[in-house]
Amino acid sequence: MKKIKVITVLLCTLMLIGGCGTKDSDTDAYIQEQDEIMDQMMDDMEIKGTGNASLDFLKGMIPHHKSAIEMSKSYLKYAGEKAEFSELANTIITAQEEEIGQMEDMTARLEKSGTSDEEKEKQYLKEYNAMMENHEDHETETEDLDRAFAQGMSMHHQMAVDMARLILAYTEDEEVKQFADNVISMQEEEITQMQSYLQESGGGNHAH
C-alpha cells in the first residue's frame, strides 16, 4: 500500500497528471469550507434561555440542520453528482430542509403557547452545554474527499443524535418527542453507512 501511495505521489509531481493535483486541492477546499461551516454552526447553537427546554432544543437543532445542508452542498460542489456519497448528500439536503420547516412550525407553536419550566430548562442547558463542549473538536484529517465527508458528517450526525436523546429526557411535547425519535433513527442509520465505508476504505474514524 505504501509503495502505491509513493508511486502515485511521484506521478503527480513528476508527470503532472491533471487529476491528482485537482483532487487534492478540492479536498483541501472542502475541508476548509467544512471547518468554517462547523465553526459558524457552533456559534449559532449557543442558546439563550427561552424558559422552555423544547424550544431551546429547536433553536439549537435548526442551525445544526442548516450546517448539514451547507456541508452536503459543498461536498457535491467539489466531488460531483457521481461521487461516493452523492445520493446521501442529496438525501440529507432534501430531508433536513423539510425538517427545518417542521421545526420552525413547532417553534412558532411553542412560542405562542408561552409554556415554561425554568428549573427543567436550567438542567437541560447544563447538559446541552456540556455536550457542546464534547463536540468542539471537529477536525478532519484525510487526503480523500469522500472520506473527509464521511468523517465530518458522521461527527455532525452524532451531535444531532446526542441532542435528540438529551431532549427526550426533558420534553413532554409529543411532537418534539416524535421528531427527536426520527432524528435518532435516520441519522444513526446514515452514521452506520458512513462508518462502514470508512472501515472498508482503510481505517475507521468513529463518530463521537
TrEMBL record:
InterPro entries to which the protein is assigned, alphabetical: DUF305_CopM-like (IPR005183), Ferritin-like (IPR012347)
Coiled-coil portions: 93-141
Annotated signal peptide: 1-22
One Pfam assignment: DUF305
Positions of the DUF305 domain: 56-198
Keywords, alphabetical: Coiled coil, Signal
Domain of life (superkingdom): Bacteria
Presence of the UniProt keyword Signal in the record: yes
Designated name of the protein: Uncharacterized conserved protein, DUF305 family
